[in-house]
UniProtKB/TrEMBL annotation:
Keywords: Membrane, Transmembrane, Transmembrane helix. This is Uncharacterized protein. It comes from the Bacteria. It comes from Umezawaea tangerina. The chain crosses the membrane at residues 29-47.
Length: 49
C-alpha cells in the first residue's frame, strides 16, 4: 500500500483514500468472519464434550 503510493506520486489522494477504505472494510469483514467461525467452532467442541 505505502510502496504503491511512493511508486506512483501521480495518484490522486482520493484514489489512495478509497483504496485504504476498501482494505479496511475487507479486513474488518474478514475479522468478523473469522471471529464468528471461531465462535461456532468453540461452541461445537463445547457441545461435543
Amino acid at each position: 500500500m505505502v510502496a504503491t503510493t511512493i511508486a506512483t506520486p501521480h495518484t490522486p489522494a482520493v484514489v489512495v483514500v478509497a483504496a485504504a477504505r476498501g482494505v479496511v472494510t475487507v479486513a474488518r469483514f474478514l475479522g468478523h468472519f473469522l471471529l464468528a467461525l471461531f465462535g461456532v467452532a468453540l461452541l461445537g467442541t463445547g457441545l461435543d464434550h
